[in-house]
């Protein structure tokens, strides 16, 4: 795509918004991820994540606070050759992405999977996920792209004829953007028996009350919709069944986070063994272990200074220390102190505990035999004093796999910001002017960009004086998310010229419109090329299910 249009001397178009100024970038080509700007909803005081609801988030900061999503920027330096969506803050959050980044650095196996519900034509918002799958594949990951046709049929009521039509279109765009079908896997939920069998097994670990709490299901929710949820859980874990347990990342929008939390829970529930840290023979909660660890560190240090034997730190000593130092409110300490008092003079020794969760008797006996060195064997767990937690976890996983278990690793996820609609507000497939379909005629794409809302000032004079509001501009998002591609220098130039008053909206939209038309033309040419080769791919494009 060419980028030779000079937009700095063009006349400004009136802004269709009245919002406060956005702050300048603090680093090259980096979008704000604090929830301010075009995504903010005035007066919004909570975040609701609904996988089948509206694709918008009022305040991205609250996702960190309320749902435990971590900021991606904090681990950006650990990601080899990060994608431009990562560098620019479009990918703003993650859940446990560190194992995936480590696998990339160490050239070890990992996987990426994401799915598409074929309810309409693929558009530029879907391109974010397409790009994330393709980039992970290019970094060496096993890539999976799936068509969520069971979900489309059950949750959205599409007929199988409609689903077949849209499914092919999603596949063509994914291929046209660079997905390698020879190195990756494409499938439909309805045609993948392994996924359906796994969904059945995972369904044993979930119940109606839980699904109702997470998704708001009630007595009016049909069973097929609920079944589609466990099918999606199976999709998320499928790369670890199709090959082997390995770090797996699911690129999604933040509205899909409920699926990720449930999938991580189900992955843990199916495990034969749990691995935790412990200090004595009794069971303790995570909060209790933290208190015991703090007390032990203090008392063990005192013992070392007096040349006392390590075993002289006993459970009753820990209980007394907690009473004296009160490192937490009494109600938080009470249960820990009761357990410590009951253990009395038992020595406190740090160890790693392997718990029997769902293991067969044979698997538990095999685990006992596999733990070498000093250990203590109890009815439902084994304590090892020589293995690290990581080594114990890997040993437990291998025993599980040897005895028919899944051995799942918790799936990871990355989250991208939603694109603002070209008309302002949400980008919606039901509002054609708000989005650009990847199937739009290039001239139509050009016209939509030319008609888009901007973050410009009321007049060209004010724009030159005050600068534009790029942080609130759907047209600027087009540059940052798509049109600048991997060229951070170009994206930065557009931003700085805008907020500096050099770039006016008329010329900026003309340049964006031309780039969009070029992109659509190139993309559709590649789709046509792949359309002639679809029969060669190993994927079911036509469903043989009942038509209704």
Summary of the model, kept short:
This protein has 20 helices and 11 strands. By secondary structure, it is α/β, with parallel strands linked by helices. Helix 6 (160-176) crosses helix 20 (505-531) and helix 7 crosses helix 9.
Task: Explain how this protein is built.
The chain has helices at 61-67, 84-87, 98-105, 124-138, 149-155, 160-176, 193-203, 208-215, 223-242, 257-269, 286-305, 315-325, 330-343, 361-370, 389-402, 442-450, 460-466, 474-483, 488-499, 505-531; strands at 70-71, 91-95, 111-116, 142-147, 185-188, 248-252, 273-278, 351-356, 375-377, 381-384, 412-416. The protein is an alpha/beta fold and 548 residues long. The strands form two sheets. A seven-stranded mixed beta sheet has the order 1-2-11-6-3-4-5, sandwiched between helices. A four-stranded antiparallel beta sheet has the order 7-8-10-9. Helix 12 (315-325) packs antiparallel against helix 13. Mean pLDDT is 86; it is low at 5-47. Residues 509-547 form a coiled coil. It comes from Natranaeroarchaeum sulfidigenes. It is found in: Cytoplasm. It catalyses: tRNA(Trp) + L-tryptophan + ATP = L-tryptophyl-tRNA(Trp) + AMP + diphosphate + H(+).
